Amino acid sequence: MEGIIGLVRLFIIFFTIRIFLNSIFRRVIMRKQVYNQKNINDLEDARRFSEENINEDAVDMVYDQVCELYLPKAKAYQVVEEEETQYFCSWECRQHYIEARSIKN
């Protein structure tokens, strides 16, 4: 009889520990899920913010024939010839183009 009472006590202790550990693991898992959901929401907000600002941050790019590079139109130097506009990255490139055009003509 004492053996059976010992087994019952052992099962009670075992299940008590198991219930206690399960409750701890559930809390840990719930916290991780909440944390992950918060990070997912933050990433979605960041993605949505960047997609909304893509159109606002779009910049017209123009080509500099002398240096062979692209630059923002707002920062480019210009030469207008017969309804055609040429763009340059610097004043020196612009002057070089003008001098080369005057030599050809």
From TrEMBL:
<feature type="transmembrane region" description="Helical">
    <location>
        <begin position="6"/>
        <end position="25"/>
    </location>
</feature>
<keyword id="KW-0472">Membrane</keyword>
<keyword id="KW-1133">Transmembrane helix</keyword>
<protein>
    <recommendedName>
        <fullName>MYM-type domain-containing protein</fullName>
    </recommendedName>
</protein>
<keyword id="KW-0812">Transmembrane</keyword>
